[in-house]
Every structure is written in structure tokens, then in C-alpha cells.
UniProtKB/TrEMBL annotation, chains A, B:
Location of region: Disordered: 383-402
Protein name: acyl-CoA oxidase
Superkingdom in the source lineage: Bacteria
Stored InterPro entries: ACOX_C_alpha1 (IPR055060), Acyl-CoA_Oxase/DH_mid-dom (IPR006091), Acyl-CoA_Oxase/DH_mid-dom_sf (IPR046373), Acyl-CoA_oxidase (IPR012258), Acyl-CoA_oxidase_C (IPR002655), AcylCo_DH-like_C (IPR036250), AcylCoA_DH/ox_N (IPR013786), AcylCoA_DH/ox_N_sf (IPR037069)
Length: 676, 676
């Protein structure tokens, strides 16, 4: 038991930290981490044995693209894509499994991960989620087997985050019973589209659906299947394909631009699950409200966002595994009087760089696992047979919509936090490995370059966190209604999905922890109940403050755009506080499931996650009287002490991820040369 | 005048922010920024007109290297390297000018910048600083004219930060009057050496100098000129050259590895300014103390570190110029009820990302200019004619050593802070430009990739900041002497340079500001005297706390390594607080020099620099009772308000850098296509 004391003014803070004794085996951690989809993870590891460890990109774009396309073919042959598709068409219908399997690809070549995501997640996923039987029976098998390589053509040069404002048009011509796909202005060209520059033959094109050519009024954004290349790979008439060229990374993925000059496709090309056009041009939809229809359509595509969060987690794990191995092998500066040089991981500065990041990676892993399970439950119910699960009773429908909205909010929030975490962690790992970390042969720079865009694609992180917060605001719905006069509510609704999010049904453990004792001691930093309350309290306070601020502005009759814009930092803080709470609850739930010998180690990792998270935001806790200055200082020392306690187990913790060993066999992890 | 109020408990914080009225012209800013070396900056801009805007690396390493070598030849033809070398050998002897001229290259191709730095800064600089007339007269002209491309072979695979422990040996053979250069173990190979893989013909090799082969005892690390390739580019006998291969960036620089198998060079190959070997093997040196000799030698090489800080500044400026232009051109989401989409730079979240970074870039610019001036004064006095400026009276010598140590400390600190700032800023700029920011054609990813290693080379930032702090600790020298019993002082002295650093002689403005009024109001965030005191007070308090902590540990008879290691986060904080203060003082001095129409704008930029810096560390100010919670909250809003005030001038501020326009002509800054 270590006791830290800090005194300031009349106040003393004392933290009692129990020692972490004994040794731990990675094999004890693996089952906890592998969780529900353990067999799928194991299978993925087996499959990856064949992959050579990805060195840095060759630099020759065409060669990179060919290599990655070959990898994609191998995945198709191995049946990798089957998990994600319905059984009727040769799939296995394991939605959660498909996301986990995708996540595992992130230990290897990130270009392959993204290309697989484009082909089977985005393109195939859109055909499955937005299409109906006529599309499924005709295309799903060809998509799985890579006979039909395709694109997901949503983003345009002019509009990315603001999908509702896309400018490409799909105008119905009842005479020919065809849609005319057209790019009316340059900035309406589809941009950054994976699979477009080289391999794609078909594109799911998102366009404003117009049936009344007189008014030109749109039924909103819909998706259509548009052939873009013939069998020999030549662009089809009216389709203009450009190459986005070199990117910061992911150069094995052929991103391109698509423009359409009055390209005609048959009426049946419309993915018509949520909106259809009769031969005579009559528009029909099972969802009357156009805004609700739009968000329902987008909502079915949530799997992509969740997959990106998972993939970024694998990249962060890989970077940490490399940096920790290096930290054990690399020595620098003699320890005075010993004649021995110090392992760099023995320096506090290195521990501070890597271990809180490692703890957060564990926390995000458990949150991701929970998110995938929620996706699995919801989409297994609603997506399996065509249209089944829909049209349930009104109450059921409401509950379902509620769950779906919550899923979307969590996916958005976790994607933002997880991808930012990966970017920062990989950067820190690179720096922790010094000059060697900068060499392509050691993988870190490629990991950084490849994952960098994860913070941007599948939703820009800043926009996503705002979406989360604005969803939470609807908890204060009557407040928002008060604001009606200045159009604030309308503004929220227009700019973002009107997500209705409730707090998680408190899991039994958390409930037990929170009710087990009275108000906890301010100083009891290592009490799980105190930790849970600290996160929950911050979320609640930030959110309530935001609602109050908006209400005040409304009373002042301020300009709604200015009001929201001035509060944007507050909004982002609210989103982040919410996600932190969700993540901690997932970690606590995982600890509860874990009754094996790994439990004491994981509990320390959780402590480090919590306290380093609070440390990073401790100004807020101080400003709001949640931490005394003395306790805040004790917190810093507690984080140091936890780093010191976990340092001997760092290798065990990264080995727990069970990343296939050959993917980590790079010069940097091989220790000093034998002649040393 | 805008008034912000925050109330918490009984305390109210009020901040009065004056409005920033009128328009400002970039031309008003340029002379303030260009400063003392304005003609050199202008000349550099002219020279850059010939450069094509650097797109992303082609990916073909050989092609990149050839292109950059061609660029280097053009620079040589244009006389670029002359500034940095003494007049006797055809140079211009403008040391400060040479650093500024190097810095300006950072607006363009960073591979060219680094290759120029290797050839003329590191290699040529070492020959000039460590050699004597026999080396100068023979080589300097050839180095300038690129007839003799060379390497700076210091870092080894096994030792980078710990230069004193390098393992390559230079053993004197009196019979042959030659040195035998040898790589005794694999990890003693020279690593990451620029110019080694392809172009270098000579290397300045740092090695343990041994004259007594019986004992094998070293006189410490010395530098020798060792030929590595013949005229036709083939490795010389006994020299093994490997290629480091692809890197995270800078692939136009040919980094390689050098190993030596008993390679013989004549006695005169030793760069003998600080240590020489007589024909009979007698070692002599003008500096008796080996540790002092070592640090004096390293100290003369300080120009490289200062140049890196400057180069990183240019890269950050370029990234900001690109992101601000994009932020003005790019629109997303309609402003409700207007039919017009909002410029993304009008969102607070974008302003928060870019404008404090821009303010800090200004602050670092002024600090860099001051550092370069200090370097110029010191090296112009000591480096010009061979050995002149040395051997002055004892008192003069002490004062000189003092100034030199202070220069080294500032160079170390500013290099660390400036390169971390560049890395973070370029990352933020990339994200602020979304998917377009990820395309190589828009330069940002290449800027990020190229400058990433700046945080590592020319001194790892974490090690450098510790060096700064440990230097400051010697202010508490009698305390350190108290610690003698546990060897703490020895540990500091052994592990780091024993830099003796005093606070700057307070410039008259700062002195005037600080004495103009009594103790300032806590809440007077925008009072320059309050700001200066806040930075100074934090530095002093952190440093004194650190000294107390070490003294306490000494009293407890603790293990010195553990004591220092446990305090490493405290040490880094002290280094950072010190650099922040130096930077602010430089900004204040620049404001004082600026009496033109740009003054009100620059004053606002300085406010934003100060308050966003305090904001980032406001937990410390709260923990130590320097800010009340109410004032801390008012601070956040003041930063928001300053962002809002500066937003209309963002373009002016980046235009003030006067980056040659064609280097910013990339698709992302060209605004929406004409047909929009």
C-alpha cells in the first residue's frame, strides 16, 4: 500500500494505492479482450498468417494498388466477406462478426482494410441496406466474390459533412422508364471515392431524386446503382473518371472522382427500400416525413462508422505493441554507478507517453465491443430478411427507433474519440521510438499516414461530436421548445439528425457500485464509485450548463446561428464528456465479466484510464469545485504511481491483444544486434 | 468594448476586451516579421520563384533523391551557402543570415531544406567549427560549391541522445601517423546519416579518440574527416554503406548507415580545434577538462538546432496559410434562413483550431529571430578568424561561456517547443481541411510527413527540455551542493550539460511594464504586465518546487536515479514554463519595436498567444491559486472572443508571412470551381 499525501492550505489529500503484486500472463487477458466474437478473432489471426508484414508503401502507386487488389481477391477467396451478408445470398449473416473481422484487418495493411471496407462495407452494405430483393438476388453474390467491384459515391467536392445538400441529380424520365444521372456543376462531382480510380465497375451514387422535371423539386437524397466501367475497365459513355492521385497514406486504395453527363440507368437501379418511383413517375415511400426518411436511410449505413472506430483501435494497438517492445529493447544513458544503460521504458516520460494511451486503448476496446454487440442486435432484427422487423406495432416501432438513434449517437461519438485517440497514440509511439520510428521498415510512420484520414472520413470528428451533443440536448426537450421563437430547435433539427438519446440503462454492476455507499469522499480517487460519479457528474453538468446557456440566449432574442456557434466549444465538450462516460461504463462492465486472474491487472488499467482522463481535463474539475487543488495534485502523482505499477506489465498488456507475431517482427523490436 | 462577466460563489470575474477596429494590410506586418534580416528574406523569396510548388513525393525514391540533389546544385550555383561561411574562403560570414536563409527554404520542399542543412549546416558547419585552417583552406570552398558532398556521422544505431557514449573508435597509429576508424560492434554503425546512401563522398565521423592502445582509454568523442566514396561514387575499401530505405517523409534525402572496418585516415583528418594528436601520439587540447571540452565542441554545433526550429516555423506558417485560405473558400451547411452556406472559418471550432496556433506561430517567430540574433553575435565574435575570440581574459572568458550556455539552453528549449508546435499545427491544419487536406496535391500531408522527425533529430525534444530544466536548476546551485551526498549533482552533471543559465537581462520595455503599476488585479487578463508576471511566476514556482522536491528526496537518502526519474514530468514542466516565458518576452519586445499601423493587430495576436497558452495549462494556475475558478472560466470566453475578433484578419495574418504565392497555389486554396 502506497500512500500519497498532498497538502495545500488547510486541506490535505491522501490517496492510498494498493500494490500490484505477482505476474500476469497475456493468455489471461486474451479471452477478456476477445470477448463474444473470440472464434472470429482467432480465425482472423489464422488468416493473417499468410500476410507478409506490411512494410512502408513502395511509393509506386500502381504497384501498391495492384498489391492491395490482389489482397482483396485473396480475402474474397477465403470467404472473408460472407460474415456481413444475409444467408439467403450465400452470406453468414453475422453482422457483429463482420465488424470484428474487419477490425482485425487493422493489425496488418491499412490499405487492404480500407479497400475491403469500401467494397463490402460501404458498397455492398449500401446495396444490402438500401436495396430490395431485386438488387440482392442479382448483385450480393457478385459483390462478395469480387466479380462486381464497386464504389460508394456519396461525398462530393462541394459537400461532404452536409450530405443533404448533395447536388448530383437523378431525374426520372417516365417515357424511357429511366433515371438520368447528372453532375450539374463541377463541385457536384463525387470525390475521394474509393475503388473509383482503377477497379470499380459499379457505383452506388447518392443523388437528389427528381420526378417532377417542371418544378425540379427533389424527394431528397436517394441511392442508385450506376455502372461506371465496362468489363475491360474502360469508363462508360457519359462517365468521367479522374484519379485523386497520391494521398497522405492508403495509397493502395484507388480514390477517384466521378462526374456524370446525363447517364441513363433503368428505373430498377434505384435502391428502393426507403423510396421508390412507379413506372409512371409516382414517388412512394414507407416513411412519409422526408427528413425522417433521409436520416433513416443514413442510419442503416452506420456499420461503416463503427468499423472505422474498430480499425483505428487495431492500428493504435499495433503502434503500442511496437513502441512497448522498443522501450524494452532500447537502452540510453547509463544508470549512474551501475555500468548499465537504462531501458527507455523505465523513464517516467516514456511511461507517461505510452501507458495512459495503452489504458485508454483498453477502455475503447471494451466500448467498441459493446457498440458492436448493440449494432448486431439491432441490425440482426431489422436487416435480415427483406423488410422484416419493420412495420411492427407503433410502440415497438418507437422503441426500435429509440434504440437506433442511441446506436447512431454512440457510433458517432466513439468513432470521433477512437480515431483521434489512434492518431495521437500512433504519433506518440512514433516519437517514443526516435529516429528508428521514422523509418518505414518499422511500420509506425505508415500506420500514422494511413489512419490519419480516419478522423475525417465516415463523418468529420468535429461534426460527429456536435451531433452527439445536440442529440443529448433533446433530453431537455421542453427547454428546446421554449426556444421555438428564435428558431433554435429548427436549427438543430436542420443541421443535425434530431437524435433522441437516453442514458444507458445502468448495468447492474454500475448500479450496485453507485448505491453501495453514500456520497463518496472527494479524495477517494481510486474508488470505482467515485470515478463513475465523476464522469457522470461532469457530463450532466456540462450538458445542463449548455442548455441553460442556450435558453438564456433565446431569452435575449439572439441570432440562433451566432448562439450555437458561440457555444461550439461547449457543445464539443459535452459530446466528449458523454463519450468518456459511455467508455468508462463499458470498461467497468468488462471488469465485472472478468473473474479470472487478470482481474487485478485490468482494474489498475481502468484506474489509469480514469485518472489520466480526469487529469487531462482537470481544469474543468477544478473550475467547478469537483477537485480541490490538493486533490488535483495528488491525482498527478497517482497517475505517475499507476504508470510505475503498470510498467512491468506493459509487455503483457500489449501481448494480450494477440497481434499475430510476424506483423510485429520489424527491426525496431528485434533488440540490440547480437554482437552487442 | 466587450465586457465578459463570470460569477462563481462570491467571486465575480470581469474582463473588458477592447474592439479591434479598422482594416490591416499584410504589408504592414511584413517588415515587423522580416526584422533584421529583411534583405536576406527578400532575396530568398526571389530565389524561390524558380522553384515549382512542391507536390507530394512521387513515391519513386531514386527520382526524389535525384530531384533534390539537383535542387541542391542550383542552390550552390546561386551562392546560397556562402552566407554561412567565413569570408577568407569565399563566404560572406553572415551567420544569422545563413540561418534565416535556411529557414526560408522551409516554405518549399522540406527534403531540399534538410539536404541543404546536412551539406552546409551539419557537414560544412562541423568542418568550419571543429576544424582549423588546414581543413578550412582545403575543403570549405569545395563544400560550398558542392564539389565535396558530405555527411555528419554522429548518431549510431545504439546511441543517439547519449552522444558521449558513442562506440565508434578512432585509434592513433604513431608508426603510420594515421587514425584507424573502426566500428567495433553492430550497434556502433552510424545511422540515419543524411547524404550517406547516395551522394556523400566525405563524412565527419564522431568517434572515441584513443591514443593509448594498451589501455584503450578514450580522450572522449572527437570528429574526423573520413572519405567514404571515390569520385565515381563507389564505397571506399573498409567502408560499408547501407541505405535506410523509405522514411515517413523526406524521401528526397538519402539517409544511410556507415560502418568502418579499420579504415585508415591521415593524422590531419582530425578536426583539431579542440583536441589534437602530435605525430608521436601525444594528445593536446586547449580545454583541459574532458567534459567541458566535449560540451564546448557540441556547443559550437548549435546552429543546426536553431536552424531546425526555424525550418519548422516555416512549415507551420505554410500549413496555416493553406488552411486559412481553405477556411475562407470552403463553405458547408446553410446559415438558416439566408440561403447561403457558412464559410468554415466562421465556425468557432475552426477558429479555435487555427487561430491560437497562428498566434503561437507569431510568438515563436519573434523568439526565433531573437535567438538567431544571439547566435549571430556570439558566433561572429568567436568563430570568424581561426581561434580568434578565444583566449580572452579570464573574466571575459567566463562571461562568454555564460552567454554560450544560455544560447545553448534557449536553442534546446525553442527547438523542442517549436517543432512540437509545428507537428501539432500541421496536423490540425490537415484535419481542418478535411478529405481535401489528405490529398498530396494540397501539400499538407507532405508537410506533416516531412517535419515529423524534427521533434526527434538535432536532439530529441524530451531530452532537450530536460536539459533546459536541469540547466535552470543550477541557479539553485547551493541547494544542489547540499545534495552532494547522494550524488544528485553528479547525476545531473553526467547525464546532461551543466548549463548555467540566468534569466534574461530584462529588456527595458518589460522592466517598464512590470514596474508601471503595483500588484495587478487577478482578473486583468489583458494587462500585459499581468501576463508577463503570470508566465514569470509560473516558471519560478515550478522551478523552486522542483528544487525543493529534489532537496527533500536527498534528505531521505533516496536513490538518485529514482528521484530524478520520479520527477521527470515536473522537470519537463519546468523546461516548458521557461521557454514560454522567453517566447512571451520576445513577443513583447517585438510589440515594442513596432510603432506602425500593425501594432493594434499584433497586440491582439499577443493576447491570444498568452491566453491560449495559459488556457492549455490553466489547471496549474488553478491548482496553485493563481486563477480563481471564475477567472479561469472568463479566460475561456476571452479566448473565444479574441478568436472572433481576429477571424476577419486571419488572411491578413498569414499573408504577413509573405510566403511566395506560387507555393500556395494548390487546388485547396483555389476556391470553388468557376461554374459554381
Amino acid at each position: 500500500m502506497i500512500s500519497l499525501k498532498r497538502r495545500r492550505g488547510g486541506h490535505e489529500a491522501r490517496v492510498e494505492i494498493s500494490a500490484l503484486s505477482g505476474t500476469f500472463e497475456p493468455e489471461w487477458l486474451r479471452p477478456v479482450l476477445d470477448g463474444r466474437w473470440e472464434p472470429i478473432r482467432q480465425e482472423a489471426r489464422e488468416r493473417m498468417r499468410e500476410l507478409r508484414p506490411p512494410a512502408g508503401e513502395s511509393g509506386d502507386t500502381e504497384q501498391e494498388r495492384a498489391r492491395v487488389m490482389d489482397g482483396l481477391r485473396r480475402l474474397a477467396e477465403q470467404g472473408y466477406p460472407r460474415l456481413g451478408f444475409a444467408k439467403e445470398y450465400g452470406g453468414e449473416g453475422d453482422i457483429g462478426g463482420s465488424v470484428v473481422s474487419f477490425e482485425m484487418l487493422g493489425f496488418g495493411d491499412l490499405s487492404l482494410l480500407v479497400k475491403a471496407g469500401v467494397q463490402w462495407g460501404l458498397f455492398g452494405g449500401a446495396v444490402q441496406a438500401l436495396g430490395t430483393e431485386r438488387h440482392h438476388s442479382r448483385h450480393i453474390r457478385a459483390i462478395m466474390e469480387l466479380e462486381l467491384p464497386g464504389c460508394f459515391a456519396m461525398t462530393e467536392t462541394g459537400h461532404g459533412s452536409d450530405v443533404a445538400s448533395l447536388q448530383t441529380t437523378a431525374t426520372y424520365d417516365p417515357g424511357a422508364e429511366e433515371f438520368i444521372i447528372h453532375t450539374p456543376v463541377d463541385k457536384a462531382r463525387k470525390d475521394y471515392i474509393g475503388n473509383a480510380a482503377r477497379d470499380g465497375r459499379m457505383a452506388v451514387v447518392f443523388a437528389q431524386l427528381i420526378t417532377d422535371t417542371e418544378s425540379g423539386e427533389s424527394h431528397g437524397v436517394h441511392a442508385l446503382m450506376v455502372p461506371i466501367r465496362d468489363e475491360r475497365g474502360r469508363a462508360l459513355p457519359g462517365v468521367r473518371i479522374e484519379d485523386c492521385g497520391r494521398k497522405g497514406g492508403l495509397n493502395g486504395v484507388d480514390n477517384g472522382r466521378l462526374s456524370f453527363d446525363h447517364v441513363r440507368v433503368p428505373r430498377e437501379a434505384l435502391l428502393n427500400r426507403f423510396g421508390d418511383v412507379e413506372p409512371d413517375g409516382t414517388y412512394t415511400s414507407p416513411i412519409e416525413n422526408p427528413s425522417r426518411r433521409f436520416f433513416t436511410m443514413l442510419g442503416t449505413l452506420i456499420r461503416g462508422r463503427i468499423s472505422v472506430a474498430g480499425g483505428s483501435g487495431s492500428a493504435a494497438k499495433t503502434a503500442l505493441a511496437l513502441a512497448v517492445r522498443y522501450g524494452e529493447a532500447r537502452r540510453q544513458f547509463e544508470r549512474p554507478g551501475t555500468g548499465t544503460e537504462v531501458k527507455v521504458l523505465d523513464y517516467l516520460s516514456q511511461q507517461r507517453r505510452l501507458l495512459p494511451a495503452l489504458a485508454t486503448t483498453y477502455a475503447l476496446h471494451f466500448a467498441q465491443e459493446e457498440l458492436v454487440a448493440a449494432l448486431h442486435e439491432i441490425q440482426t432484427a431489422t436487416l435480415q430478411p427483406d423488410g422484416a422487423g419493420e412495420g411492427a406495432g407503433d410502440d415497438d416501432g418507437k422503441a426500435e427507433e429509440w434504440r437506433q438513434r442511441e446506436l447512431e449517437s454512440r457510433a458517432a461519438g466513439l468513432k470521433a474519440i477512437a480515431t483521434w485517440h489512434a492518431t495521437q497514440t500512433i504519433q506518440d509511439c512514433r516519437e517514443a521510438c526516435g529516429g528508428a520510428g521514422y523509418l518505414a521498415e518499422n511500420r509506425l510512420v505508415q500506420l500514422k499516414a494511413d489512419t490519419d484520414v480516419f478522423t475525417t472520413f465516415e463523418g468529420d470528428n468535429t461534426v460527429l461530436l456536435q451531433l452527439v451533443a445536440k442529440g443529448l440536448l433533446t433530453r431537455f426537450q421542453h427547454d428546446v421548445e421554449d426556444l421555438g421563437t428564435i428558431g433554435l430547435a429548427r436549427f438543430v433539427a436542420e443541421q443535425f439528425a434530431e437524435a433522441l438519446i437516453e442514458r444507458t440503462a445502468a448495468r447492474s454492476t454500475i448500479a450496485r457500485l453507485l448505491t453501495a455507499r453514500g456520497e463518496p469522499d472527494e479524495d477517494d480517487l481510486l474508488d470505482r464509485a467515485w470515478q463513475l460519479r465523476a464522469f457522470e457528474d461532469r457530463e450532466k453538468h456540462v450538458l445542463e450548463g449548455l442548455a441553460r446557456r442556450l435558453r438564456r440566449a433565446a431569452a435575449d432574442d439572439a441570432d440562433p446561428f451566432e448562439v450555437f456557434n458561440d457555444a461550439q466549444d461547449h457543445v464539443l465538450r459535452a459530446g466528449r464528456a458523454h463519450v468518456d462516460r459511455i467508455v468508462l461504463e463499458a470498461f467497468v462492465a468488462a471488469l465485472d465479466r472478468c473473474d479470472g486472474p487478470a482481474a487485478p491487472l485490468l482494474a489498475k488499467v481502468c484506474d489509469l484510464y480514469v485518472l489520466s482522463t480526469i487529469e487531462a481535463d482537470r481544469a474543468w474539475f477544478l473550475e467547478h469545485g469537483r477537485l480541490s487543488p490538493a486533490t488535483a495534485k495528488a491525482l498527478l502523482e497517482t497517475v505517475n504511481e499507476l504508470c510505475k505499477q503498470l510498467r512491468p506489465h506493459a509487455r503483457t498488456l500489449v501481448d494480450g491483444f494477440a497481434i499475430p507475431g510476424h506483423l510485429l517482427e520489424v527491426p525496431i523490436t528485434q533488440g540490440p544486434p547480437a554482437t552487442d
